[in-house]
Amino acid sequence: MTTADLAGQTSAGARLLAAARAVIPGGVNSATRLVGPPHALTAASGAYVTDADGRRYLDYHAAFGAILLGHAAPEVDEAVRAAVGGLDLVGWGVTEPEVELARLVTETIPSAEQMISTMSGSEATAQAVRLSRAVTGRPLIVKFQGGFHGWHDAVARNVISAPDRAYGSDPLSGGILPEALGSTLIAEFNDLDSVRALYEAHPDRIAAVIMEPIPHNVGALVPSREFVEGLRALTTERGSLLIFDEVITGFRHALGGYQQICGVLPDLTTFGKAMGNGYPIAGLAGPRRLMEHFSSAGGDVLLAGTFNGNPVSSAAAIATIEYLRGHPDFYERTHALGDRMRAGLDAACAELGIAGTAAGFGGVFALYFAESPIRGYRDLMRNDDAAYVAFHRRMTERGFLMLPLTLKRNHISAAHTAEDVDRTLEAARDVLRTIRD
Ligand code: PLP
């Protein structure tokens, strides 16, 4: 929406956005927050968010997946309140909460012996890439078309591309040196041969393969067993590291992340988002033999960060993980609700004669506007992007918050109920009818 359009609007959202644009470029602090009409958000509780114009939304956006237990989860808020007013930030020595958090994480993530704490997922993946290069002495990284690992240079290629640009040179941002972009190679998810071909073309030069074990940044592609096991074997055989970027899947699908579910262990794991249930914290974990390359342990990989391991974020993450440990039924519940949603969406598409495929895993769901099977990014080229965006936009207009961008996924939290899912499906059926007609 242009600033001139905003001037004619009277909603509180439009007014705040106009004020925001004077002092924040574009009015928002992360580019994909501003899609659709302007909204000023004022409150969030449980499964709902409320805007300044009095609208209430059932929230499946979940702050891009950072909300897992519901907004303002009492257990997390209490832990944060208890932390505030005690030790804030000293930047010297070691603090109890960061140690407790690392203990919990290394107990729960199967491949983790040690962890470092960062403030964001991007910092965690940046450290993972740098560590891989330092350990192997090699320059190149492999990522998959459609995968997103944060905003930094090493992973700023081939995120979600228009079909004509997929697999080509597709930088996420200006201002990145061609050498940096050229040091990242692109493969096709669920296609081991595409990775083998890169090893043939660049022998002894690939430091690591980084992957979202389920690429939720393009909805939800589920890896085949042969693919993950094959990647594990291939990277080991070729002397590279395998990095699971579990920033979305971590803690969300299982306490030990997707690696616990598939039984394949990466060398390094990054995680973030849901682990703090909305508070800023992320991390990188791996075996001691790799993690001790960080400068904190005398290695040559710089570990620095003023806010790393800060007591308040650590308290939020400890409370989130303890909640999950104390409520193993959380996973059964959210997975069952996810199944109910996917089955309902598939049934609605079948009933209405729409070529749709409900995809997802656990509490994450997406509705592709394409016939199954959808295994990799190439299959997603068949997705009807306009229908996908229209579906999300019209659902949001009806009070079911689903980010209106193509291939964005939706999240079910501990605060959603079966009634919520059924209400959503009822609305989805109506919206799908409008899309078909
Ligand atoms: N990795 C994945 C899989 C992500 O989805 C994201 C963010 O969406 C990141 C890394 C970057 O995390 P952050 O936004 O906390 O920097």
UniProtKB/TrEMBL annotation:
CDD domains: OAT_like. Its cofactor is pyridoxal 5'-phosphate. Transmembrane segments: none annotated. Its EC number is 5.4.3.8. GO terms for molecular function: glutamate-1-semialdehyde 2,1-aminomutase activity; pyridoxal phosphate binding; transaminase activity. The keyword DNA repair does not apply. Belongs to the class-III pyridoxal-phosphate-dependent aminotransferase family. PANTHER family: GLUTAMATE-1-SEMIALDEHYDE 2,1-AMINOMUTASE, GLUTAMATE-1-SEMIALDEHYDE 2,1-AMINOMUTASE 1, CHLOROPLASTIC-RELATED. This is Glutamate-1-semialdehyde 2,1-aminomutase. The lineage of its organism: Bacteria, Bacillati, Actinomycetota, Actinomycetes, Streptosporangiales.
